[in-house]
């Protein structure tokens, strides 16, 4: 007869934990539980890496006046709701955790909305923007004057744009700080302002007008640089952390910055910007076809042969070989990359000197969505093109937001490529000064 006490015992079960879909991208990729502490979760702090939660930081109390009406206070549901930046692609513009009615409105007025104030700390960032940050957006003096003078003037009557201005200034301050605590503080401040601006501009995209499109245009330009600057290891105490990029998905940074430029390419919007004080940013005009040098012709002929004409085999286990659709996407993307490479390396024309920053960052914003998907899947063809683009990005290494990007993109492509593809990355590595043998 069986022991009654043994029969009544229930089998032991594992203690479950509350599942969440709002953890950071880095923890999801490593398949570990995220504590969701903002702006950087505990796991990312231990690993001294950037955390995607910095893009969803709730509003900081000092940047808002004391709430006078109950309906302006964030609810527990809204304040705890977050989204990872990659999950938002291709829209990329998340709603703020708890926007005020003034910031959520897409309309831009000439007077400051009632109840909206900025703190002394914010004024410090505004000052830093005008004397320092605004001088890091272009290689042309006339464009820098637009960012230094016209942009703040527009932002004074456009509160969400002011948040965007303070965000990029705060991120710049974080890069300038050698003290780790101050660096983390300014990173948090920047993320909070960016979160407010992102939500407001997402709503505005569905109602673009002549009056509000300059603000959208400026914010889209800052968004690109903010994404690049936020991918550095700002949470690390390493003195060189602000020059080391930190991400595991090579498509993550491209997904974050895409979305707005396609809207700005509409003919009406283009005309509105050309009639605004922001006109110099668009000069000297559209990118034109330029003749290739013999060296460039050889480089792109090699790429066309490996990616399109005679595609190299893919030896990665369980990975499909390149099909006709993939080759077609690569052909379109490579043609764009060749055009922009030739244009960027051309001599200055009577139309004026080239804005190296603006022209370089166009390509990742206009490549087909499928190319970005292939990059996220670590397809060799997309990785090889990423390494070629890194050569252009490396020309911007003197800017704080671009430090380390040329070498970093080449390294990640090298690590992910199968052996038979690695030779296609050796030339880009040499051009950006990267020693692959040490990787």
TrEMBL record:
Stretches with biased composition (Low complexity): 100-114
PROSITE patterns documented for this protein: ZN2_CY6_FUNGAL_1 (PS00463), ZN2_CY6_FUNGAL_2 (PS50048)
Domain Zn(2)-C6 fungal-type: 23-53
Keyword hit for Cell inner membrane: no
Signal peptide: none
Keywords: Nucleus
SUPFAM superfamilies: Zn2/Cys6 DNA-binding domain
Region described as Disordered: 1-22, 62-114
CDD domains: GAL4
GO molecular function, one term: zinc ion binding
UniProt biased composition (Basic residues): 11-21
Ranges of biased composition (kind: Polar residues): 73-85
Source species, domain of life: Eukaryota
Keyword set includes Nucleus: yes
PANTHER family cross-referenced by the UniProt entry: STEROL UPTAKE CONTROL PROTEIN 2 (PTHR47784:SF5)
Name used for this protein in its record: Putative transcriptional regulatory protein C15D4.02
Species the sequence originates in: Diplodia seriata
């Amino acid at each position: 007869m069986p022991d009654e006490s043994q029969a009544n015992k229930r089998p032991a079960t594992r203690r479950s934990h509350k599942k969440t879909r709002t953890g950071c991208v880095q923890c999801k990729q490593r398949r570990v539980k995220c504590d969701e502490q903002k702006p950087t979760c505990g796991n990312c702090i231990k690993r001294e890496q950037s955390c995607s939660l910095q893009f969803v930081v709730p509003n900081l109390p000092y940047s808002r006046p004391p709430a006078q009406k109950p309906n302006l206070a964030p609810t527990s549901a809204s304040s705890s709701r977050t989204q990872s930046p990659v999950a938002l692609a291709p829209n990329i513009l998340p709603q703020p955790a708890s926007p005020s009615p003034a910031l959520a409105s897409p309309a831009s007025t000439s007077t400051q909305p009632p109840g909206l104030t900025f703190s002394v700390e914010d004024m410090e960032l505004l000052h830093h923007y005008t004397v320092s940050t605004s001088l890091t957006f272009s290689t042309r003096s006339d464009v820098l004057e637009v960012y230094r003078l016209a942009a703040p003037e527009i932002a004074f009557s456009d509160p969400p744009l002011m948040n965007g201005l303070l965000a990029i200034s705060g991120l710049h301050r974080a890069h300038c700080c050698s003290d780790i605590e101050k660096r983390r503080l300014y990173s948090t401040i920047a993320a909070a302002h960016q979160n407010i601006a992102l939500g407001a501009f997402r709503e505005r995209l569905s109602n673009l007008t002549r009056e509000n499109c300059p603000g959208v245009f400026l914010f889209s330009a800052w968004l690109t640089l903010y994404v690049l600057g936020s991918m550095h290891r700002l949470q690390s105490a390493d003195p060189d952390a602000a020059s080391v990029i930190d991400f595991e998905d090579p498509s993550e940074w491209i997904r974050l910055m895409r979305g707005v430029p396609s809207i700005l390419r509409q003919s009406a919007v283009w005309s509105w910007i050309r009639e605004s004080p922001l006109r110099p940013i668009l000069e000297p005009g559209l990118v034109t076809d330029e003749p290739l040098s013999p060296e460039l012709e050889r480089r792109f002929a090699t790429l066309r042969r490996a990616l399109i004409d005679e595609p190299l085999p893919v030896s990665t286990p369980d990975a499909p070989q390149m099909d006709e659709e993939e080759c077609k996407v690569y052909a379109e993307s490579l043609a764009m990359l060749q055009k922009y490479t030739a244009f960027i390396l051309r001599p200055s024309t009577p139309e004026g000197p080239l804005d190296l920053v603006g022209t370089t960052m166009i390509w990742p914003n206009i490549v087909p969505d499928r190319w970005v998907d292939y990059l996220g899947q670590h397809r060799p063809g997309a990785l090889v093109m990423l390494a070629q683009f890194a050569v252009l990005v490396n020309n911007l290494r003197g800017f704080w937001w671009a430090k380390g990007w040329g070498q970093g993109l080449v390294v990640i492509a090298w690590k992910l490529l199968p052996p038979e593809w690695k030779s296609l990355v050796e030339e880009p590595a040499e051009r950006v000064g990267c020693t692959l043998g040490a990787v």
